[in-house]
Design goal:
Blueprint lengths: L1 H25 L6 H6 L16 E8 L4 E9 L2 E7 L5 H7 L1 H12 L3 H14 L1 H13 L22 H15 L13 E5 L2 E6 L12 E6 L12
Antiparallel strand pairs: 1-2, 2-3, 4-5, 5-6
Helix pairs in contact: 1-5, 1-6
């Protein structure tokens, strides 16, 4: 029982570290454990289940100063939350402004394949030791260990240059983020376009209506170089 509780404790901390590290790196806020576990940032294939607890939970609250993440375990009606929150810096407050966060997200969506691969690896590296603790305690406690989730395979281009590559890039990004679609700071759909040798990411802005004066856009020149793709045996 003690080892099971320890395993869950390390696992809950892992969830918090993943959520905050992803937010720090990308500006993306995962508001529950299901969305986080679908992303490439989470290092295990399995959903977020506890060893002792019936289920482990992640909850997000956003106020005027910062994002707060809570994690806990639920057995029947009992919920116990522990709190970890990032510092209320000017940078974190900027991310909570929907317009500023939208700008950051639009820029991030156009980072390109190598930068996104590096970002996923960076976030995983930050929680690597915790991941090993979670696995180790689960084995000692006789719980089923998690299966490691492989890193996403890179695409054969850095940024899309053709309509078909644009479709592949957007789908690839959604798979990495574990989302149905790319969203802005208001949670609305972001559109990607190819335009005169450039890639454009567009948000409908605060009013949510396309083609109005508050629409936001970021444009990046399409890269001509290719990146190597590992051959699978």
């Amino acid at each position: 029982m003690r080892l099971q509780r320890l395993a869950d404790g390390f696992h809950k901390r892992l969830i918090l570290e993943l959520a905050t590290a992803t937010y720090d790196s990308t500006g993306i806020i995962y508001q529950n454990e299901v969305l986080l576990s679908r992303s490439a940032f989470y290092p295990f294939r399995d959903p977020l289940r506890g060893c002792y607890a019936d289920v482990l939970l992640l909850r997000t609250e956003i106020d005027k100063l910062q994002v707060r993440w809570y994690t806990g375990s639920k057995r029947g009606r009992y919920i116990s939350w522990s709190n970890r929150q990032p510092a209320a810096s000017a940078w974190s407050r900027d991310l909570l402004d929907p317009e500023k966060r939208t700008l950051r997200l639009l820029q991030a969506y156009l980072w390109g394949v190598p930068q996104w691969m590096k970002t996923v690896q960076t976030v995983r590296d930050k929680v690597g030791k915790l991941s090993k603790y979670v696995q180790g305690f689960r084995r000692q406690a006789g719980c089923e260990p998690f299966v490691e989730k492989p890193l996403p395979s890179p695409l054969s281009f850095e940024l899309p240059r053709t309509p078909s590559e644009l479709t592949s890039y957007e789908k690839w990004l959604c798979e990495i983020l574990g989302m149905a679609y790319l969203s802005d700071g208001w949670g609305r759909l972001v559109r990607l376009h190819l335009k005169n040798g450039q890639v454009e990411a567009v948000s409908s802005g605060a009013d949510g209506v396309w083609g109005t004066t508050d629409d936001m856009a970021v444009v990046v020149k399409t890269a001509a170089t290719k990146i190597p793709v590992e051959k699978r045996r």
